[in-house]
User: What shape does this take?
Amino acid sequence: MIVMSAVRHAAAGSAALLFALPVPVAAASPARPVPRVVASVGEPTPPARQYVDRTRLDRQGTQVQRLPGAPALPSVSALSWLVADASSGEVLAARNAHRKLPPASTLKSLFALTALPHHRPSEQHTVADSELTGIGAGSSLVGVKEGYTYKVSDLWNGVFLSSGNDAVHVLAEMNGGWESMTRQMQEKARSLGAEDTHVVSPDGYDAPGQVSSAYDLAVFGRTGLQDPAFARYCSTAYAEFPAGSSSYGIANTNRLLTGENGVERYPGLLGIKNGYTSNAGNTLISAARRGDRTLVVSVMNPQEGGGLAVYEEARQLLDWGFEAAGRVQPVGSLAPVRAKAAADSGTRAVSVTREKPGTATVAARAGAEAVAAPAPARKTPEPEASGPSAGLPLALVGSACGAALALWGWRRRTAHRASGSVRP
Assistant: This one.
């Protein structure tokens, strides 16, 4: 194989020297185009909205950038809430998105993301008495009994429908124990870019220091929808729960899903998870699909309207999101920010999205607070495939250049020796 290399040398007015050198290549399979590696997180962000000012979500108060014709936000009393497109991860609007608040049983969504992959739904487990110890007083229960044998799918129905802390305790023991589960959930949250969440009790029971945020809960909900098992459990309205030789019916406590207790069922609802404790108040992660669009909404601790207000406020935010989609500039993103590659590891972070040359992000403004467009980011070079073959073209060029320089030096020294001008 012949690699043509051109080396330009300019010194003291000397002319450029060009060399064509043969470079030996180790035996290999026939040359093939090097595949391009494309990194992504969930669904790609639409090209027109590649660069989003994430710092807006760090601000207090309501963040929204309405374009002409966009509807006004509804008036809701929750301390914190967020509306996002589940496919792209774009945040359409939010209030106090990163405010750290007790999550109650919405934290079970993170528990499910962490523990669901470890056991098959059909796997059976006989409950030991030790697995039901330590359940907090006043916890919601599905009715798991010592000595009974359950399928894993039954236990997950107990978690999602009845918000059963007894089912959580059993599944946690099946996945390394309570303390191990706490650590696993914390690691999972960080891997998803959920920095506000601190896990103390995996079932969401009130515990000192246990917090999450509307942003993190929306991240958990969006991620869960990408898992078919999670999506199936969180959207189940009714199921049968075994009780030895018989069974009894259980209903999902998410009123928007079942339409019970005077709450009208929300059309297209995909469920996710609700919660309540005396410390957290009412909390809710909801998702709904309308046409080809899916939205995820998180609501934390409404201050008005009683115990059912969380459902009505989520309903209003979902309605607004479907009407406003395409008529607002996103104020943030649920997609995780890739970690900066460590210098000593030799790795390189790969950008999820890239800006086309000569373009810049323009934040459209209409009836909303203006936002400064971020400085245009330097374009990241297209990554090559990883592995031994990835660096081969550069290695060949480097070898050719080195050989060219060596040959040029040898010829120069030979010429100088011939003229008697070589220095020791």
Residues 392-419 form the longest helix (28 residues). The chain has two domains: 1-37+384-424, 49-333.
